[in-house]
Amino acid sequence: MTAKEYLRNIRDLHLDIIAKEKDLAELKQQAKSLQNTALTERVQSSKSNSSNQTIDEVIDIENLLINNKTMCNKLMISAYKIIIQISEEKYRRVLIEYYFNCRTWSDVSDVMHLNKRWVFRLHGRALQEFEKKLNWPPKSHYKATTDHDIIVS
After folding, report:
1. How confident is the prediction along the chain (153 residues), in pLDDT tens digits per residue?
2. Among the listed residues 76, 61, 66, the one whose alpha carbon sits nearest the alpha carbon of residue 28
3. Most exposed of 98, 100, 136, 138 (fewest Cβ within 10 Å)?
4. Which run of H or E residues covers position 143?
């Protein structure tokens, strides 16, 4: 796994958490409206089942979010410990803005007051520095079992 793949997994997991949080908010709103309907109308079994199903979905997503947030935090802490070892401040900043803060490249260039092309160059150099700081064996020793798991063979 390369430095870019490692950091990309963190970003993807973080973006997935954000999307699931939005889904959860929508489901909670849906459950709330189903509860209000049940209170004002005569309870029918289909509405009750729908309400129970929605509540089950909310619980499932909440549990998944807890697990994903824990994993994401561990990955971010481990990556951050490597990033802070990079001496060049602009390299650290581009990695944090893009991978941790989930900004677009345009947003990163705006925040850093640089053109996008220069941000891409900084990013490439930052990844090289990040890779140097990793204490991984050669890439051939790794195989990914999932998007976020690494096994040393």
Report:
1. 899 999 999 999 999 999 999 988 888 888 777 666 554 454 454 555 666 787 788 888 899 999 999 999 999 999 999 999 999 999 999 999 999 999 999 999 999 999 999 999 999 999 999 999 987 655 544 455 455 554 443
2. 61
3. 138
4. strand 142-144
- Encoding tokens for residue 70? 């824990």
Tell me 138's DSSP state: -
Structure-token match 């908010």, residue found: 25
CB 51 within 8 A of CB 85: no
b/e per residue 95-111 (b: at least 16 CB within 10 A): bbbbbbeebeeeebbee
Backbone angles phi, psi at 142, to 5 degrees: -110, 145
Q: What is the CA 99 to chain-centroid distance, rounded?
A: 9
Rounded to whole angstroms, the Cα distance separating 151 from 141 reads: 8
CA 121 – CA 128 distance, rounded (Å): 11
